[in-house]
Amino acid sequence: MKVDLPESRLPSLYRDFRPLKDLNPDGYEANISTWRDFFLQQYISNSNRIIFTIGTRTLQELTHEVYGVPKSIDIAIDVLVNEGNLIPMELFNLGGMYTDNSRKGFWKWVRSWKESTNMYKSRKDETNSYLREDKFIIKANLEKEYQRFHELLKRSVFMEASSITDLVFTRNEFMTTESLQSFFSIYDEETKNVFLHFIENYKHIIVSKDNVIKVIAAEVEDITSRFSKGITENDLRIASVKVGIININKQITRLRKEINESNIKLRGPEFNELPKRIRIEYKQARLLSEKHLSRLLKFQNNLAQVRTQIDTSATNAVLIQTLSESNEVIKSINGYIGSTEKVEDLLDEIKEGHDRTEEVNDLLAHYNKGQDEEAEEEIERELEQLELDEKNNNKEENKNQDLHEPKESSSEDLLKRLNNLKINTNEGPVQDNENHDNEIRKIMMEEQPR
């Protein structure tokens, strides 16, 4: 394995630099930091691995052709553990992955777990194979993979589940579910166990027992709330039925494939060249496969019907429990309301209270009735006086208007009378003019004011 480390630092990095802690603290810290960054980059950050293993093999992989085995990488590993980047496998299995490393109780726990008086140490002795054979959980990678797993589980289970049978699996069925198979297929059996332990004991997504897994995530609370959160005998039976259905489906798939291959062979040109006895055997084998397929299809239908009945029974159980709880609610509310006599008494009291309120309103309405009548009479008198004053003002205006109207009338009458004057053309002009002038004078005299 090629070790990507600074060439100029290799002599210092590969020797036992523990004495530098007192002689050259800066060099000591620099070496630790370099090895720490190397492990983070090489084994932790740039991979999907969840388990990191140390031991003799690690030392062999890091052996340099000139400088040999690195003498002090245990210090960098201890730093990664103390920082929480690496979680010792045993501590992980004990549930200590998210324990606060800064608390004193944490390392007390680690000491009791390792039966040691010191913090965790990856060095076991002073030989060339000084590293413990130990395993760690890479915390950041495990959490990152969990986010990816949760999205897949959401699509394959959370959004599709409608009954308790959709949440119960055998271990193999769970890991080979259509959308989850691609996730688990890249990991070995040990990593699968680690991940299942993580989602059960840290994330509480599942519970498991006797190779049976039940999803109990908060996203399916509407289904699981009516049933036990643990694995029950009914869950084991449901898993058994589902295993039977899966196995039959596999056999049906295999038989269909065999029958298709047999049909192709029977229709091929080479088939007719075979001896008659062999051709008969081929046909009999196909008939046997078809009969077996027919029986398996019946079994498949029977098991499918059983699963449907289980779903129906589970739905009925939920319905009965819901009706029972609804009945208790109704009883509780009716008990709070009381008997019908109590309700009638309450209504009578309300009616009496209403009547009393109306009486009080009437009394308050007539309390100032006399004073109100006097005020109304005063207002009516004022209104009458206002109307009388308005009439007088109208009369005065009419009088003033009449004084001007006669002049206008007399002027108009004068114009009419002047227009009506007739001139007699049969008489002489002198006489006619004289009569006309006399008429004008007469009219003008009449129009003069008397």
TrEMBL record:
Recorded protein name is YJL049W-like protein
Q: Which InterPro entries match?
A: Snf7_fam
Residues annotated as signal peptide: none
Q: Which biological processes are named by the entry's GO terms? A: late endosome to vacuole transport via multivesicular body sorting pathway; vesicle budding from membrane
Q: Enumerate composition-biased segments (Basic and acidic residues).
A: 387-416
Which Gene Ontology cellular component terms are annotated?
Answer: cytoplasmic side of plasma membrane; ESCRT III complex; multivesicular body
Pfam families reported for this sequence:
Snf7, WHD_CHMP7_1st
Native organism taxonomy: Eukaryota, Fungi, Dikarya, Ascomycota, Saccharomycotina
What is the protein's species of origin?
Answer: Saccharomyces cerevisiae (strain JAY291)
Residue ranges of region Disordered?
387-439
